[in-house]
Specification:
The structure holds two protein chains of two kinds. The longest helix of chain A has 17 residues. By secondary structure, chain A is of the alpha+beta class. In chain A, the strands form three sheets. A five-stranded mixed sheet of chain A has the order 2-1-5-3-4, sandwiched between helices. A three-stranded antiparallel sheet of chain A has the order 6-7-10. Chain A has a two-stranded antiparallel ribbon with strand order 8-9. Helices cover about 25% and strands about 15% of the residues of chain A. Chain A has two domains: about 80 residues, Roll (Ubiquitin-like (UB roll)), CATH 3.10.20; about 150 residues, Alpha-Beta Plaits. Chain B has a single domain, classed as Rossmann fold, CATH 3.40.50.700. Chain B has a five-stranded parallel sheet. In chain B, strands 4-6 form a two-stranded antiparallel ribbon. Chain B is of the alpha/beta class. The chains are: A alpha+beta, B alpha/beta. Chains A and B meet through helix 3 of A and helix 4 of B. The complex binds iron/sulfur cluster (2 copies) and FE2/S2 (inorganic) cluster. One iron/sulfur cluster (SF4) binds next to helix 4 of chain A.
């Protein structure tokens, strides 16, 4: 690992060459909006909220999956970026059926909070109103595909924190969706250990504890963090 | 100074936004000195008047009558406010849209035939019972909306914040949790 120097929002910073732009910005207290990023699992660049401008590169790059390089000049908060973040959020809302008023996550939802923090007061695109079902076959948890933003946090928590590998993404394009095992109902997915880590990882009202009603689904991320910390610090290795 | 000519109306909504307006409590008294309610479910005017300064519109567009009214309102109003989540996003009334292409027929069938114990049959009276739209939509899909006031319902403080800015002649800005849906 070599040390490098780069510039983020006019600030000279030093970092390790293996680090993502996002992790360096976070260390420096520079807030970049994220939705699919989850501490403790690898990044996939699924949501595009963390897009940043890099000097010399025409397209916008996701901070979470872009490795920092020597001399890089990064901007995290420009008019262009704010415009695209808003568009991205509006498209997320238009793609599935988000009815915040009656959602289990109302008031505790990262998508909802992100939308108002980025100044989204309405969606300029026509809503798609797709038909999606709920999976209520698991005895403790439920999944509402209407609220899913396909961030795949649940998939990564399931595979790489719990190690069960129950959750996956199936389908393509607008019909992509989260499945359990080989597309069995969740309640029949034999690999599921019922640990609930996917539920704790989900940023929206798509995964919830059964019995929660409007606004009741609050998450406790420490249930994910303690395992990640133990792994990183090798606490459980004798 | 002339009082501001204000109208309110509700389309496909539950009247909750209007209830929240009434939650303005004593501010309503200050307001009464500064605005004149020229049209609203709470006053008995049947026709939408001309030269309205501000109209607060609650509810989504669910039927043809809603759309006709909206177009008239747009022509005769300076500042049109989408008042509450149903007006801004379509909200709960749009849930029938996901039931497919014939949802407008199917929801009526369900309500007036399948679930009816007596007098089964879909109410139908030309000129009186408006036809449902194929899909429920927010206001800005049909006309230009000047201001968005989200919330289900928007809390009284949020309504006040918008009205105060309008009364002071500013172009209102709502930010942060003041534009939270739900
Ligand atoms: S998941 Fe979040 S944004 Fe979607 S309906 Fe629920 S509260 Fe609203
Ligand atoms: S269920 Fe939740 S965590 Fe999983 S992809 Fe959908 S929004 Fe993300
Ligand atoms: S956080 Fe980087 S793309 Fe989602």
């Amino acid at each position: 690992m070599a040390a490098i120097t780069l510039t983020i929002d006019d600030k000279q910073v030093s970092a390790e060459d293996s680090q993502s732009v996002l992790s360096i910005a976070q260390e420096q207290g520079i807030a970049i909006p994220t939705l699919c990023h989850l501490e403790g699992v690898y990044d996939v660049g699924a949501c595009r909220l963390c897009l940043v401008e890099v000097a010399g590169v025409n397209k916008l790059l996701p901070a979470c999956t872009t490795k920092a390089t020597e001399g890089m000049v990064v901007r995290t908060d420009t008019e262009r970026l704010r415009k695209y973040r808003k568009i991205t959020l509006e498209l997320l809302f238009a793609e599935r059926n988000h009815v915040c008023a009656i959602c289990v996550a109302n008031g505790h939802c990262e998508l909802q909070t992100m939308a108002y923090n980025q100044g989204m007061d309405h969606v300029r695109y026509d809503y798609c109103f797709p038909k999606w079902d709920m999976d209520l076959t698991h005895e403790r948890f439920g999944m509402d595909h209407n609220r899913c933003i396909l961030c795949a946090r649940c998939v990564r928590a399931c595979w790489h924190i719990e190690g069960a590998g129950t959750k996956n993404v199936a389908g393509r394009g607008a019909r992509s969706h989260i499945i359990t095992d080989m597309f069995q109902p969740w309640g029949e997915a034999e690999s599921c250990t019922s640990c609930g880590k996917c539920v704790m990882a989900c940023p929206t009202g798509a995964l919830f504890e059964r019995g929660s009603t409007t606004g009741e689904m609050q998450r406790d991320r420490t249930t994910l963090e303690f395992i990640v910390t133990a792994r990183e610090k090798k606490q459980w290795i004798a | 100074m002339d009082r501001l000519r204000v109208a309110t109306i509700w389309f496909g909504g539950c009247s909750g936004c209007h209830m929240s307006f009434l939650d303005l409590d004593e501010f309503l008294i200050d307001l009464a000195a500064k605005i004149e309610i020229v049209f609203s479910p709470v006053v008995d005017t049947k026709e939408y008047p001309a030269a309205v300064d501000v109209c607060l519109i609650e509810g989504a567009l669910c039927n043809e009558e809603n759309v006709e009214w909206l177009k008239i309102i747009r022509e005769r109003t300076r500042v049109l406010v989408a008042f509450g989540d149903c007006a801004v996003t379509g909200n709960v009334p749009t849930m029938r849209n996901a039931l497919g292409l014939n949802n407008d027929v199917n929801v009526l069938d369900r309500a007036y035939r399948e679930c009816a114990d007596n007098n089964q049959g879909i109410p139908n009276e030309a000129g009186i019972v408006p036809t449902l739209l194929k899909r429920v939509i927010p206001l800005h899909e049909v006309v230009h909306v000047d201001l968005f006031l989200p919330g289900c319902p928007p809390p009284a403080g949020r309504i006040k914040s918008l009205l105060v800015q309008v009364l002071e002649g500013q172009s209102p800005v709502l930010e942060g949790a003041n534009i939270k849906f739900g």
